Amino acid sequence: MNLEDWDVKRRIVGVFAILSWIAAVVFYVTAPESEVFLGGAVRIGAVMSAIWLALPNKDRAAAWANMSGKWWVTLGISTLAMVIRPKLAPGILIVLAIISFLWKSKTPKPVARVNRSQAEATDEKSKSTKSSR
Fold first, then answer.
1. Confidence (pTM)
2. What contacts 53, CB < 8 A, 6 or more positions away?
3. CB 45 within 8 Å of CB 24
4. HSE (side-chain half, CA atoms, 13 Å) at 88
5. Which of 72, 62, 20, 15 is nearest to 41 (CA)?
6. I want to staple 45 with a disulfide (CB 3.0 to 4.6 A). Which of 20, 28, 54, 65 is the partner?
């Protein structure tokens, strides 16, 4: 799937997220006693917003594109543990938060690249200041 397809899908998800949030506000203002519809609209809006943030755009890859196999295994094991023992979920989430804070990424950080014309201009400036001394 090429980037244009993802861009269209990202826009559609964003529109649904905004419409869900608008529906939640409308339900809250007009009929606050209809908690079922209000809660549903808020949940759908939150999930659609999260999906919208995770989808790729022109400037960055998808959120899941840079996840290593270790993270997928950790996510699977923790999800399984939370399904088997739901009372342990807060503890598991705290441990995962600590691990993710301490676990350093081994992927190198992107280095800012200088255009060739900028590098040549800087070179010429440094040569001219050396020759004028």
1. 0.49
2. 63
3. yes
4. 12
5. 20
6. 20
Whether 102 has a pLDDT exceeding 60, the answer reads: yes
Q: Say if residues 82 and 92 touch (Cβ distance below 8 Å).
A: yes
Q: Is the pLDDT of residue 94 over 80?
A: yes
- Model confidence pLDDT, tens digit, residues 50-66: 888 888 776 766 666 66
Residue 101 has pLDDT above 90, yes or no: no
**Closest CA relative to residue 100, chosen from 65, 51, 59, 67:** 67
Least Cα distance to 28 among 40, 15, 13, 14 occurs for: 40
3-state helix, strand, coil in the chain (%, to 5): 75, 0, 25
Q: Distance from CA of residue 41 to its chain's centroid?
A: 22
Question: How many whole angstroms separate alpha carbon 69 and alpha carbon 49?
Answer: 26
Is 105's pLDDT higher than 70? no
Residue 13 in contact with residue 52, Cβ under 8 Å?
yes
Gyration radius of the chain's alpha carbons: 24
